[in-house]
């Protein structure tokens, strides 16, 4: 989306092509030889930057979660109420299917693999951080009297988990836009949480100002470099 192509030998270009291959074929179907061939570089250059295929996947995971956390924190700062914050986070989870689609699909295809990481790994810590942001929004909504009491930890996992399957059925060029599907998710989720549902029609409007504000937040970083520091331990 207007991003200038990175130089083939740079780590960011390697990560970009690897990410697209994982999105299209999965981790097991992706190889250094395929990435190197497309970039016109040697496999040794990929090894120089990332070491192993597993470390390249971890770089994908870390870069993806860092950006999602940054955006979630901006959403929390941007919207004044837990209800609006939750709606915005829900819209964002669907809008990623269009904005940053390759990284989102690659992450979601391999989310079960990421779940097997060591507790102390950076990727797992980043996922906990992201889930903590969402859980805090739920808890603050209960405290403020906007949400009915729920098990915030379980509800957070249910919301996060449901979003990870969107890659299997959502079509960017399909009948429903990401905004429209996001509106359904907002209606479904907040409909089960809100004590007073008066704000629900406004928040579940796919053409409303809240959606426009979320798009502005998640597109602000488009075009920024995605490479990470050397991942070789």
From TrEMBL:
The keyword GTP-binding does not apply. Residues 31-50 bind DNA. One of its GO terms (molecular function) is DNA-binding transcription factor activity. Pfam families: TetR_C_24, TetR_N. Residues 8-68 form the HTH tetR-type domain. SUPFAM superfamilies: Homeodomain-like, Tetracyclin repressor-like, C-terminal domain. Keywords: DNA-binding, Repressor, Transcription, Transcription regulation. This is TetR family transcriptional regulator.
